Amino acid sequence: MKRSRKSWFVLTVVMVASLLLAACSSTNKPESGESPEAQNDPVTLTVWGQPGIDLPTNVDKKNQEIYRFIQTEMEKKYPGITIDYVGKGWGDDLRQNLMLATTAGNPPDIAWGEDFVPELAKLGVLSEVPADYAKDLAEGPMLAAKLDGKNYAVSGMTGIFALMYNKDVMKKAGLDPDSPPKTWDEWLDMSKKITAAGKGEYYGSVVQTVGLGGTFRIAPFMRQLGGDLTTQDWQSITFNSPENIKALTFLKELSLTAPSGSTALSDENALYNLVHHGKAAFGVAGPWHISWSQAEKCDCGFTPLPVPDGGKRANVIVGNTLWFVLKQSKNQEAAMEYLRIIASQEYQEKFALATGRMPSNKAAIANPELVNAIPQLTIYGEIVENEAAAPLPVYPKNGPKVWEAWYKAQESVLVGGKPIDAAIAEAQKTAEELLK
């Protein structure tokens, strides 16, 4: 994911809030009392998704089956419906595009994101999702879809992190490819040995440090020690906890075994292909790396994240795609039906088979046929069962600016070499001021 939350995003918030009353009133049901769907037959839905396997332009047969399924299900209620899939990026690029489109009064009917649903819901941009749409979805992934106890999205898939390792690189360095590291000390020791053996040809570990993607991969190691970015209620900043500083100290050491320049990469494809292509041995990876590594012809293994001495297993919910309906959509009923399909067991099983991703639907997660089809999911299933995991926090005020303070600190430490205590203290002070 690219560098997060451009500063001008904050400037659009006031504009959005001031325009929503007029925009939303113009998109309510017509005076006749008929829904827009009834007046405009057939319906056209605009869906913002991510280019690649998640859009129907992908020619993979399993991917195509997903979109045929969605189309068939939608046709049952809306014959002749057209679903226009548009790629508008991910993360902060998607957020900024959504804010611009909403401000201009021409947003999509449906979009997806990961970490900013409560922010958009607080602005009044999103439609509330009926509670029964989420009744079959796991609680953890749905935490990031809520504001004040109400659902504003459904989780289409989810994930947590494991350690991915390239078996060929381990063999080259004289290590047992069937014995990946289990502790921080073992991981660091192996990474140093691999880097030394590689002599510039291959290295120990890739360490993602930039923006939101970096934070996602840092958070589990803080949580293993009992640290986090906030208190559990998300109300108070805890950037400068001793546990967080210890985790950053370890990751800084680990980053010294990374390929030159890689810690500054914002392109996740480029970063993790270093592992897939044998330029590094280890990387922190979500379940989407199962199919990704296979596509790159990597003999990659997956194992739970190594744990520090005195720590415990912990994780973060990541790759949690949240589908939501924009309040300005003129096709509310059809858009909500799309979300119902996304939340269904049948859809999520099809998507998992096509992508290797973890379902959020509890029945799909428990289906043994899915695990048999994608054996590597067993590791991720074991992690879900044995590790406490929650989303990244949602800040109660000035969220984008608070995140920027943290991103600046993590990057100045892990990329720029700024002293950890100083960088984190500065970020703590800035964040506390923003929450006043």
Automatic annotation (TrEMBL):
Annotated signal sequence range: 1-22
Alphabetical keyword list: Signal, Transport
InterPro entries reported for this sequence: SBP
Claim: GTP-binding is one of the keywords in the record: no
The keyword Transport belongs to this UniProt entry's keyword annotation: yes
Coiled-coil ranges (or none): none
PROSITE patterns: PROKAR_LIPOPROTEIN
Superkingdom: Bacteria
Similarity annotation: Belongs to the bacterial solute-binding protein 1 family.
PANTHER family: MALTOSE-BINDING PERIPLASMIC PROTEIN (PTHR30061), MALTOSE_MALTODEXTRIN-BINDING PERIPLASMIC PROTEIN (PTHR30061:SF50)
Name under which the protein is recorded: Extracellular solute-binding protein
